[in-house]
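Quick check before the chapter quiz. The format below is the same one you will see on the exam, so make sure you can read both the input and the output lines.
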Amino acid sequence: TALVCIPRFNLTATLKDGYAKIDTMPGSVDRAAFRLTAQCPDSIKEHATLDIDDLSLTAMGSYIRGFLHYKNSRPKYVDADLKSVIKLEDIKKFYPLPKGTELAGNLNVDATVKGTLRIKRREMPVTTVKLRLDNGLVKTGNFPESIKDINIDATVISTNASLKSATVNLKPVSFSFAGQPFLLKANLKNFDNLQYNVYSKGS
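Here is the expected output.
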């Protein structure tokens, strides 16, 4: 069943100086803000748009900043920017994690995406994503061992709409599990005719 049409709608919402705290947690989420506009002036779903501006969120020493503009047109269009610094060990201070779960490390994300998206034509927006995790640790209550010493330095870049320009560079990804170190380096490019160079070490 194909969705042919949708109701007309116009939604606006604004949040400024938002604050949230769970009574049992020592930390809080504060300085939350955004401006949201979503609309479709008629019943044609391709005319629907979504705009989120001035997105801001702070929790302890972590923050998220960014915006998103999306058009459900043909082709679809997206313009987005996201910057964040997240101290994973602080999450448990403002949000209750499952029993036995431990997180640590500093996660940095810097992402920009702008352009049209045509999946059938294998076209994507111009994209730059940089992700870095230093001294990470993940442990769940379901397993006695933790994955620790996690270090990730990764970039995803596409300089134009063609998948030929897309590259993924892992430089490197490393961690240790049950006392055994693991290292992965990878470079992938031209996702229309994938070329790759991968190096791994560990057991």
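If your answer matched, good. The first strand starts at residue 9 and ends at 20.
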